[in-house]
Design goal:
Helices cover about 35% and strands about 20% of the residues. With about 350 residues, it is an alpha/beta fold. The protein is globular and about 70 Å long. It binds iron/sulfur cluster.
Length: about 350
């Protein structure tokens, strides 16, 4: 059981307060002190009675956070933060600057089970799911250095929908008006495509934006570069996405990593257009960021532009995301790359 009060949503704190014979407003004190005022100890929540604070402590509840180990700055303004968790597992988060707005890319697992071949995290051993507290605390720690975070993307280490309950609890906490109050439209979950969890997400009371790590226009290529494709075909994924869209009516972002000759030819773009036709989508083309031991090379800029033009000509809104944070190994697919090198 997760006894960290920082992992609990507002509704869960109301239940906890009620179970302890406390009025609902005590839950508001708990939540605002933890998620707005960054209280690190139950005893610091002074509006609560001493007796209630003592009961929470006696029942084993704590408020604990993650520890910042390293901070790396890239000349392009990107900052990578390395954190250590209580059991010594390490994770990374990346702050991206877009004008005056800060976007934070956060991790949801230590390691990842999905094993995508173009991603450094996928080569690390899966250790465990992060708790909701460990997910939200990445943002709280980064804000101490960078100021307010405006957008949160769940695209760091791990597959968010493989840690569904904790991820959704963290979304609820970050979105709560009694905490950081980050608008739900400013929160994006990115998944490599787990059909069952996508359906589950469509009926959730909270509707963050959804991004799919697609990366291939057909099953043959997808199986070559993504292990998840052996379990879930593109047909299953597309069926889940159609159902998601029929319930939510929300546009989906398709992430497509450009890999030299593997998936970047014009005939691949045409196949992708056919695949995406039934959905309301926009496409992000991402420059591949190879790490030591990565079997692939990045597409040339010309090839990426040609691919983008083909999609745009077919009426698909397409954006090219060129590498950022590369010198500090903070670019997409590079998180954990330094530890891979250590492993070698
Ligand atoms: S791309 Fe995402 S899902 Fe795939 S291995 Fe990397 S972290 Fe895991």
């Amino acid at each position: 059981m997760d006894n960290n009060l920082k992992s609990k949503t507002y509704d869960e704190l109301i239940e906890l307060a009620a179970a302890c014979g406390q009025k609902a407003f005590t839950a508001k004190y708990l939540f605002t002190f933890i998620h707005q005022k960054d209280a690190a100890d139950i005893q610091d929540i002074t509006p609560l009675s001493k007796a209630f604070r003592q009961k929470l402590t006696d029942d084993g509840y704590t408020i604990s956070g993650i520890e910042l180990l390293e901070k790396h700055d890239d000349p392009d303004g990107t900052i990578k933060f390395v954190f250590e968790l209580a059991d010594s597992a390490r994770i990374e988060a990346v702050r991206l600057k877009d004008g005056k707005r800060n976007t934070l890319c956060i991790s949801t697992q230590a390691g990842c089970r999905m094993g995508c071949k173009f991603c450094a995290t996928g080569q690390l051993k899966f250790q465990r799911n992060l708790t909701a507290a460990e997910i939200v605390d990445q943002l709280y720690q980064v804000e101490k250095y960078c100021g307010k975070i405006h957008n949160v993307v769940y695209m760091g280490m791990g597959e968010p929908l493989d840690n569904f309950d904790n991820v959704m609890a963290s979304v609820s906490i970050l979105n709560d008006e009694n905490g950081r109050n980050i608008g739900i439209r400013h929160i994006t979950l990115s998944t490599c495509g787990l059909p069952q969890q996508i359906r589950q997400l469509s009926t959730s009371p909270l509707q963050p934006r959804l991004a799919i790590s697609l990366h291939a226009p057909n099953d043959t290529i997808r199986k070559e570069i993504m292990r998840v494709a052996a379990k879930h075909s593109l047909h299953d994924l597309m069926t889940a996405l159609k159902s998601y869209q029929s319930v939510t009516n929300k546009r989906i972002t398709m992430e497509y990593c450009m890999i030299d000759t593997i998936n970047d030819q014009v005939h691949h773009a045409k196949e992708l257009i056919r695949l995406l036709r039934p959905l309301k989508v926009n496409v992000n083309l991402i420059e591949l960021n190879p790490f030591a031991g990565c079997p692939y090379a990045t597409s040339s800029n010309n090839q990426i532009r040609r691919f983008a033009q083909t999609l745009t000509d077919a009426g698909i809104e397409t954006v090219i995301r060129f590498k950022r944070g590369q010198t500090i190994k903070a670019a997409c697919g590079q998180l954990g790359a330094t530890w891979l090198k250590d492993k070698e």
